[in-house]
Amino acid sequence: MIDFSPSATRLRRRLRHSRDRLATLLISAGGIGVIAAVLAIGVFLTLEVLPLLAPSRVTAESPARPAPPLAESVAWLRADARGGLTLLADDGRLWQGHVGETGETGMADQLDRLPAALLGGQSISAVAADASAPLLALGLDGSEVLLVPRAASGEPQWSHARRHSLFAGTPVAGLTFGSDDRHWWLAGHDRNGRVAVLRGARATDDGNLGDPPQRFTLPVSASQLALNNAGRLVVGDGQRLEVWALNGETPRHLGGVRALDSQRITALAYLVGGETLLVGDSGGGVRRWLNARGDRAPLIGAEPYSTPSQAAITRIAPLPDRRLALVLDAAGGMALYQAVAGRRWQGQAPDGEPLALSFTPDGERLWWLGEAGLTQFAIDAEHAEVSWQTLWTPILYEGHDEPQQRWQGDVSGVESEPRFGLAPLAWGTLKAAAWALVFAVPLALGAAIHSASYMSTRLRARIKPTIELMEALPGVVIGFIAGLVLAPYIERHLAGALALAVVLPLGLLLGGALWSRSPHRLRERLPLGWAGVWLVPWLALLVWLALTLSPTLETGLFAGDLRAWLQARLGLDYAARNAMIVGLAMGFAVIPTIYSLAEDALSGLPGSLGEGAQALGATRWQALWRVLLPAASPGIFSAVMIGAGRAIGETMIVLMATGNTAVMSWSPFEGLRSIAANIAIELPEAALGGTHYRLLLLSALLLFVFTFCINTLAELVRMRLKRRYRRLEAGA
Amino acid sequence: MKRWRRGEGGWPWLAAGSVAVSLLMVAALVALLGARGLAHFWPADVELVTLSDGSRFAGQRVRHVETRAETQAKAGGGARTQVLYLTGNRDLDGQYWRWVDAERITKRETPAGLIVLERQRWGEFIGRLVALREDGATQLTRDAGDDALWQALQARLARVEALRERREWLRENRVAPLARRLAAGGEADSQSQHAELTAQLKAARARIADVQRALARDSLVLESVDGRRLAQPLGEVLAAWRPNAMSPFAKLASWGQRLWAFLSEGPRAANGAGGVWPAIFGTVLMVLLMSLIVTPFGVLAAVYLNEVARQGPLISLVRIAVRNLAGVPSIVYGVFGLGVLVYGIGGSLDQWLFSEALPSPTFGTGGLLWASLTLALLTLPVVIVATEEGLARIPVHQREGALALGATRYETLRHVVLPMAMPAMLTGVILAVARAAGEVAPLMLVGAAKLAPQVPVDGEFPFLHLDSKFMHLGYHLYNVGFLGGDVERAMPLVYAIALLLVLVIAVLNLTAIFLRHHLRARHRGPYR
Description:
Keywords (chain B): Cell membrane, Membrane, Transmembrane, Transmembrane helix, Transport
Largest interface: A-B, 112 and 99 residues
Oligomer: heterodimer
Family (chain B): Belongs to the binding-protein-dependent transport system permease family. CysTW subfamily.
GO biological process, one term (chain B): phosphate ion transmembrane transport
Helix content of chain B: 55-70%
Strand content of chain B: 5-15%
Membrane topology (chain B): Multi-pass membrane protein
GO molecular function (chain B): phosphate transmembrane transporter activity
CATH class of the largest domain in chain B: Mainly Alpha
């Protein structure tokens, strides 16, 4: 029953049209949305990586807050995690409270005074105040030191304080403190440069200081001291740094270095972890020295940092939780240095000498007590350890003698230094891909040439899907075979495996020669068009022969053990899971990709090309080599590029078939660690938003951009090729 | 030789050899996987080995290796063969394997009386059966004859198996729901309800305890071939067989049984033994979910690109970009999934909907949904490209014909274009499924679990648990082979898993190919 009345048709037409418009709208919205979602990958990665590039900054809040009481004679300032401040004046007066924006002070009546007996009538002349140290050491101008245990929160426990004599008669001018699980050390120098050390057993948690400490004097003079938590004391005097080990029964001199030629050492401090020493000099230079392992010179100097001015360094203040230090100079400049990345920020300090300064325990804020009052600085240096140099050039890391490119991202705590060098990972990725191509390109192109020009069409219709089905083989299966089956096998039969690379081509040529001399009947039975199949048993025989005969060969040529021979003659270490295995396995995985694209490029050529060449008297091979291959070369090039793109991004095979050691070597017998495998291993454990996490994302972005560019290039080449084919066909 | 040179030279032979080498490698890989994967379930003979010093042990011969390097110096050449035996009895020997010099073996026999027990703890036992005990009292010894004892053991094993099934049933269908209701109810339930539930739970637990006691009734006295005895509770014995006494048919039957157990059971012994059912289920479920997501969106995007959008340089640029995304490494998609889906969307979902469960994440951690979405994203370019190719292949006059007859653009699309493009779409989905099923790297970031014996579908609302972790065959393979302890012990299992994974992918592929063929045939009629 169709209603032909005009109103009904009009209604229906309008309905159809609105439905049409709605569908168009929905499809457009959905299509754009989907494409946007897919393309969002690049955007997301970029956004996540951008914070790595954000410059570090130390920003002052303005204006300065009026100084709290006692500021004029402050000896020690401490900021706690909740914004509270503690000020200790040199005469023992104590103030605790908050300082608001406008200078109003909370708990102002907390003005206190240490018991007079504690200081013994002396005033405070030096302080060793490492925020994480279990003791607060106050040097007194009457040659004694006052040791105050600190609670876990950092709060000094004044009632447990003890006084000990450090020098005879001269005021203490500088103090430095260090402690490990069992001992603590306190080193001080007086105005004349004499150095004395106190060594004590670590207090129990109840705040008891235990036995009186032992006192030693060192036969050196010092203007600067630095002590780490392993009892390593660095004494700076003039141009020299002398290193002492305090962790034995008596202090032991480890040696010294002349750190500077003409300038004098003016500031000295260990960064967190106690392995990196920063040395500031009178010419404004700052240089990093690392504790050496073993019996070498006790300190290894890194390249001096680039510094902004010639003014003498007056103070190096290490941050409590990271390898960062704030460095002040005599010209009123202030700069932030990161151990491996160098200077990250420079700016102006508030006017005048600081009376005291203190970092909050999380290292995110700095309180600066100066002439103008109290200033709070925000230290914004989240990813300060990463710069272009640290990622791609050799860096002197803690625990090494010379600059190296290392990746060691998954470190926890502040004790060990993370090593963020992407170069070994990039190297591993390219090395694995290169070996894969070395293996895959000849095989895939050979197969493509054979199946495009020689193979019988009937066979080709079957072989092509078979080889393409190889592509569906999951990487995890190939990786398993490579890592658990092939790697141990080749380790035992290295000579045989290497012999195959020679035996197979020679055997094929031999096979060809035999075939051409064989009787005509046999040749008709085994035509070249089917050689891809009937050569398989012949090759299997060759493989078997090579593997059985190789032990004899090995005994004859390589003294019975090729691996030992490689090690002795060429210095090549053999790791069971190495680049060669990855090349084999990943080559196997990319053969189908390269094969099918190259085959398409070759068989897509107009038939007239090859036929013309052959009509002019060329053999099939000559026609192929001189005419067809050059014509199809862009397609073959793009096939290889796409294969390379796949090899670069392949994860599971590399993960399973290499030892995942981030080494940079040319040897095919050593392991490697690729970017993709590294992401798979480390990303699940990386803290969200941290430097490690962002660097892993950066490496993912590199993979993305690299493969995207390779594929685009290949795609453009292929498009041009298609156009060329069309022209060729039109011309013919 | 001259003729050969005047012909085409050696190059064609090298080219032909490349095909042959590729085929040889594929054949070797498939043969290796097939042989080793299936041999894992074959009840191999147990050898009773006598060594030159008179000591004896029993075990299954696994493989032999020729070692040369060390012996060269000592013995002056000549390969030395070492044989690896699976000897089991880890509770007696402290180890599971034994390497023996082939020269030291003086005699190898296969006596019919040797049995192999598969146990819940300590792995296999290989030795002899001495006696059967019930409640500590000896019921039957081998004086009654090996066969009688064996028959009795079989009967009792059947009983134990039934009891174990009963226990599992009680756990899953009685105790677990009650415990969940108790945990979920909280204060909402009245006191009396709560008390009643507690009582029911207690009763159910008591029934399990009864079953447990019944399970503990029987025990075996076993003896290793060197005469050490061992009491083995029968409740912990999973299976027993006498490989040496079995006929080939019996062996085949046992092979089938063990194969079935591998496919249908969950993993045991920290993934070191048992089956892979949760991993199969997880893989297939994830791939299904993925194709449900990827098909409509991929087709939508392709239709937009090809039918709706105005063709111009921008669209061709987008087209190239989409095409290239198919070549972007899968791990990059995994990173995207982790960063955006898990941490970004999942984290926000947790804060809005599941804030009471924080800080333990619900959707803010890897799971089935995120894994499916990530893989959908990964395979989207594949579907788009394939569908687009199909759409582009449809002759313009088809569309023009429909439009000329008065159809709107939507109607043309719906009734003419899309049906014709159906085979191409299916091709895309097939390729997507084939790629997704074998993809492991992104799953390591977004949700595959080492061990999740519960499958993500159950009888409890909402039936399909999108937030749960799941097992995946490929990731399971990686875990068992590379993160487990005893590689030697894991190897047969890994082979079996690898074979299974390849088979699953092949089956998925073949099904899809069949489907495509079928549909192509159906749609050929009216339009040609």
